[in-house]
Amino acid sequence: MHRILTLFFAIAASVLLQSPACAAYPDHVVKIVVPFAPGGGTDVVARTLAQEMQKDLGGTVIIENKPGAGTIIGTQSVAISPADGYTLLMGTFANAVNPSLYKKLPYDPHKDFVPVALVARSFNVVVVNPASPVKSIADLIAAAKADPEKLSYGTYGTGTSAHLAGELFKHLAGVNLTTVPYKGAAPAITDLLGGQIQVMFTTVASCASLVAAGQLRAIAVTSAERSAAFPQLPTVAEAGVPGYVAESWYGLFAPANTPPDVIERLNKSAAKAVQSDAFKKLGLNEGLVMVAAPPAELDRHFAGEEARWRKVIGDAGIKLE
To answer: Is residue 41 part of a domain?
Structure first.
């Protein structure tokens, strides 16, 4: 009888120690805030993640797009949300570079958030006009050194991956390329096709079909390793710029003080989601490397990215008000 009572009290204690939030989690809609407009790469990744996590969690998971101010509006909305696991942020490269781009943010990127899961990494592709004499990274470096004022590269906004990938290239390769900002990838690519600019460090989604059709020439990928999406392309590092890596990434964050068991539940759900067929297909289309890492890995990755890009941004003198 004593053993039965001991077991009973042990089970009861375990139940009582479990947070009320997780005991019935989720009992209403879970929202993932995407700080970009619908239709972009981050939105596509988030919607696929929501669709797959919904199956695992047994509840509704929706996407809420809150673009504006370089992701600051959407990010701030999550920072001030209840810490209950029902409002999450799809964080990206922008979250790591914004502290260096802006004098002041309306939230603390470390104190106001807790990491949930590093979902995936992605990369950009170095592309040129197919009529260009530039057929490799070595050619690009040689051309830039031969005429420092001649070559220009297009970006889709200050502080974007396309911009900072170019700035990192300039710094590590010891060359000068004139930066030409656009309001998106499409107008920049139009000018690349028209010969107004000479090179871009653009996303897989924005250039893959044009490369396949022969309308753009891809000469390298910006990732640390070669990609299954472009197995024939060298990385920028192996093509002649040692130490070069410029990757984007996608990670889930929650407001600070969200219960640890809710975070654990969400992490496991995200890890399961990225193993789905939908994500495997997305990986090829978007050039993603699935990670499904635990919260501590996202925390480490975020801190490393923040420190690395702070130096690039500082050296280039890039600032936004």
So the answer is: yes
* Strand partners for 152: 178
The pLDDT value recorded for residue 10 is: 47
| Residue-number span of the structural domain to which 157 is assigned | 123-221
At 41-81, the pLDDT tens digits run: 889 999 999 999 999 999 999 999 999 998 999 999 999 99
My answer on whether 128 and 178 are in the same domain is: yes
This prediction's pTM: 0.85
Indicate whether 73 and 97 sit together in one domain.
Answer: yes
Give the model's pLDDT for residue 299. Answer: 95
**Domain identity same for 108 and 46:** yes
- Tell me: do 252 and 118 sit in the same domain: yes
Q: Kindly report the three-state secondary structure assignment for every residue of the chain.
A: CHHHHHHHHHHHHHHHHCCHHHHCCCCCCEEEEECCCCCCHHHHHHHHHHHHHHHHHCCCEEEEECCCHHHHHHHHHHHCCCCCCCEEEEEEHHHHHHHHHECCCCCCCCCCEEEEEEEEEEEEEEEECCCCCCCCHHHHHHHHHHCCCCCEEEECCCCCHHHHHHHHHHHHHCCCCEEEECCCHHHHHHHHHHCCCCEEEEEHHHHHHHHHCCCCEEEEECCCCCCCCCCCCCECCCCCCCCCCCEEEEEEEEECCCCHHHHHHHHHHHHHHCCCHHHHHHHHHHCCEEEEECHHHHHHHHHHHHHHHHHHHHHHCCCEC
Q: What is the CATH number of the domain that holds 308?
A: 3.40.190.150
